[in-house]
Amino acid sequence: MFLLLARYWGVTILRGLLFGLLSIVAFAFPTITLETLVALLSTFLLTDGLLIIWVASHQQQTAGWKIHLLEGVTGIIFGGLMLLYPHPSVLLVLTIMAGWTVMTGIIKVWSALHMFRDDDEFWLGLSGVFGVASGVFILLFPIVTHSVAMTMIGAYSMIAATITVILGISLRQHLKEMKHRLTQLSL
User: Fold this and answer.
1) How far apart are CA 45 and CA 12, in angstroms?
2) How many domains is the chain built from?
3) CA nearest neighbour of 115 among 40, 39, 5
4) Contact of 74 with 49, CB cutoff 8 Å
5) Which CATH number is 26's domain given?
6) CA dihedral 42, 47, 49, 51 (to 10 degrees)
7) Domain range holding 87?
């Protein structure tokens, strides 16, 4: 599982940057129409899902690739759900996002529990716990005003971006260390 993530540390950082972009849009344009928000969120979920599926498909011989495939498919399913409703409510958008964060959070926690790397499993697990907690919070306390929804999406995305980029940087560092050790062993 660790090698799968480490080999594609750049994709992890790219996912973090996508979260960051979503956060910037949510904070910079809090009054965008609901239809624009749905288009933005569904595009984000579909792109994120496709990135994860791409990584999983290139690593079918590596342990843990199926869990990444599941995470990618989850993003595509929830992104597709958003596109099914031409005139959604803020509550529906938040419920779909909450469902996605809970599902992917559970997948990330499960992945972290099966990694066996100290630093990286912490960041992946933290990302998962944060996703589950955010989704459950939204489901328990649905807030139906547009501006509050944009703030929640922006805050979630900003924190997720930070955690995901830190995870990508940590994965890159561990991969460099492993390559260095392998070079030392072959000498």
Assistant:
1) 14
2) 1
3) 5
4) yes
5) 1.25.40
6) -170
7) 2-186
CA-wise closest residue to 169 among 35, 12, 40, 56: 12
Q: Is the dihedral of CA 88, 94, 96, 100 positive or negative?
A: positive
- pLDDT digits over 84-107, tens only? 876 788 888 888 989 999 999 999
Q: Which residues contact 26 (CB under 8 A, 6 or more apart)?
A: 150, 151, 153, 154, 157
Angle at 179 between CA 174 and CA 181, to 5 degrees: 95
Q: What's the DSSP call for residue 117?
A: -
Three-class HEC string of 132-171: HHHHHHHHHCCCCCHHHHHHHHHHHHHHHHHHHHHHHHHH
pLDDT single digits (tens) 14-45: 999 999 999 999 899 988 888 888 888 899 99
Question: What is the rounded distance in angstroms from the CA atom of residue 184 to the CA atom of residue 161?
Answer: 35
